[in-house]
Amino acid sequence: MVNTKVFSVGFVLINAAYVAVAKRNNNHETSVPTVHVKNGTYTGYYAPAYGTDNFLGMPYSQPPVGDLRFRVPQSLNTTWSGSKNATEYSPECIGYGRDTWSQGNYVSEDCLTLNVVKPVGSCQNLPVLVWIHGGGLVMGGSGDRRYNQSFIVEQSMEAGMPIIAVSINYRLSSWGFLYGREIQESGNTMNGFRDQRLALRWVQENIAAFGGNPNQVTIQGESSGGTSVGAQILAYNGRDDGLFHGAIAESGAPVGAGVDFDVDDWEPIIANISKATGCQGTDSVLDCLRKIPVDQLNAVINSTVTRGARYGPVVDGDWFTQTATKALANGDFLKVPYIIGVNEAEGVGFGPQRINTTEEIFDYLVGSGYDNLTAHEISILYPDIPAIGVPSTLHGRPNATFGLQFKRSSAIAQDLSMNAARRLTAHWWARHGAKSYTYIFNALVNGLSYFAGAVHFQEVAFVFYNTEGLGYPQNGGPNPLGGSERESLVVLAKQMCRMWISFVNYGDPNQNLGRGCPSLLHGCHPY
Questions:
Q1: Residue 121's domain spans which residues?
Q2: In the sheet that 40-43 helps form, which strands lie side by side, from edge to edge?
Q3: Torsion of CA 485, 490, 492, 495, to 10 degrees
Q4: What b/e string do you get for 223-234 counting C-beta neighbours within 10 Å, with b at 16 or more?
Q5: Considering the domain boundaries, does residue 286 fall inside one?
Q6: DSSP assigned state of 338
Q7: At 458, is the secondary structure helix, strand, or coil?
Q8: Per the database record, which ranges form the Carboxylesterase type B domain (predicted)?
Q9: Nearest 10 degrees: CA dihedral of 142, 114, 116, 471?
Q10: At 51, which CATH number?
Q11: Which of 395, 367, 371, 397 is closest to 384 using CA atoms?
């Protein structure tokens, strides 16, 4: 049984009349939303511009500090009387990179919180969408304004398919994905992924109090958030714990690219960390690291001491008992409805530039970890023909300064980093009788030249319906939906956002999109 659908998303101009079906409660402005969860009561705030009630910064775990540092997350074990404020985002988890500092957000080791955005007033059994942010598993957070979920909840109400949206923080970098022999033996592996799973358990226990349906939860992530979605699907050989029932992965997949990084690769890094912190030679490096002041340990992690560390899935014998490729082939994955896609020019950002010769292509592949024979075969499979290279928006051959074979190297990087994993995942979904949809996003957004094309992350503003580009200036860029093509870009954003909303409601992105709203599925056919 073949269940995978393929569609390419571009931008076109559509004359579509959308009817707002959500009824706003005009009297709600004078009231303050409250919710009673298992551990106590929270007070949120009403956002009249979007017709939503918002509850922010709610812990789903005990703080992973002190003796709980580098341990699997622990469920909340306290209750309270009265009501706690849930009106501000918590600090993000400690991370390293532009997504952490450019948004001006605070970071803290005490960061395991989540946020809920719901339609205003009382509601029952609404489908739930849980957002897992990207950032290479080393940076980012749910408070990033580019991930404001008010827009998608507002769109869900206008489309007559209301949803509740959740976003989560999880531990990053060494704080969440440190690995090594002692960590493996103690069972404290993949803690960032375990954080995500505990957040999903919190949703199961509490989302009904917000009007959500715990039996209709979809998880969504982009980049390493998409990888995280894949990690949840593969966890414990695809064991169904009833935590989610659909999945969306944008530019991320269960299958990773590159060379495996295992416990033997991690041991020299652990040795460097233990030496830099004075924990070398102790009975337990982990116990010693748990006593190091957070600022001191942070300085060590954010230094050359951890150079070469690769954070991500590792076959640890618990969370992962086999490689992702074997798990998919064996059918050891949770067979939920799945959207998985990529942007058309991912390779522009993940591949090399200034590539002018076939020899340089070969050197790039060998330097990426491929043996000589494989590198030679790949170079043959990707001939130097600019017309079939990436991005498609760049016609002809660029000059030597940019790279005479730039389109060739980008096409190779595109498939190695994203496309191969997308197609392989969709293939195994179909082979095992599971329903999946796969897309390629190829819109040229505002602020990007035809040399770049639809690079990594560019679809995010569209699926969130972030038409004003909230958060993008802080990251050094313009509104992706601005410029001379704004009208058509906004129409595409509404279409994509509502397709995701449709999937959350029906497990199908093509349901109930509304009269006068033609689909942007170009050549939809079985995979």
A1: 4-261+310-526
A2: 34-37, 40-43, 83-85
A3: -170
A4: bbbbbbbbbbbb
A5: no
A6: E
A7: coil
A8: 33-511
A9: -10
A10: 3.40.50.1820
A11: 397
Q: Is the residue at 224 inside a domain?
A: yes
- Write out the two tokens for 392: 């498609």
Which residues lie closer than 8 Å to 151 by C-beta, 6 or more apart?
Answer: 50, 464, 465, 466, 467, 497
The residue type at 6: V
CA dist., res. 316 & res. 192, Å (int): 14
Q: Are 56 and 62 in contact (CB under 8 A)?
A: no
What are 406's two structure tokens? Answer: 């730039």
- Tokens at residue 414, please? 């595109």
Q: What is the dihedral of CA 12, 13, 15, 20, to 10 degrees?
A: 70
Residue 129, in any domain of the structure: yes
DSSP one-letter code for 499: H
The list of the chain residues with pLDDT below 50 reads: 1-2, 11-26, 515-527
In the chain, the number of structural domains is 1
Average pLDDT, the chain: 91
Instruction: At 160, give phi and psi (nearest 5°).
Output: 75, 20
Residue 96 lies in a domain: yes
Cα torsion angle, 341, 244, 336, 72, sign: positive
What is the C-alpha separation between 460 and 466, in angstroms, rounded? Answer: 8
Which three-class secondary structure string do you get for 350-383?
HCCCCCCCHHHHHHHHHHCCCCHHHHHHHHHHCC
Q: Which of 251, 425, 259, 424 is nearest to 349 (CA)?
A: 251
Question: Which amino acid would we find at residue 244?
Answer: F
H-helix or E-strand spanning residue 327: helix 324-330
What are the start-end ranges of the H helices in 215-306? Answer: 224-238, 263-277, 285-290, 294-301
List the beta bridge partners of residue 4: 436
Residue 462 sits at φ, ψ, to 5 deg, of -75, -50
Q: SS3 of 490, please?
A: helix
Extended strands (E) in 381-489: 436-441
Please check whether residue 112 is in contact with residue 171, taking contact to mean a CB–CB distance below 8 angstroms: yes
373-382 per-residue burial string, b: 16 or more CB within 10 A, e: under 16: eebeebbeeb
pLDDT tens for each residue of 413-465: 999 999 999 999 999 999 999 999 999 999 999 999 999 999 999 999 999 99
Q: What is the dihedral of CA 387, 355, 310, 244, to 10 degrees?
A: -10
170-205 pLDDT, tens digit each: 999 999 999 999 999 999 999 999 999 999 999 999
**Going by DSSP bridges, is the β-strand pair 113-119/164-168 parallel, antiparallel, or unpaired?**
antiparallel
- CB atoms inside a 10 Å sphere around CB 161: 22
Start-to-end C-alpha separation, the chain: 11
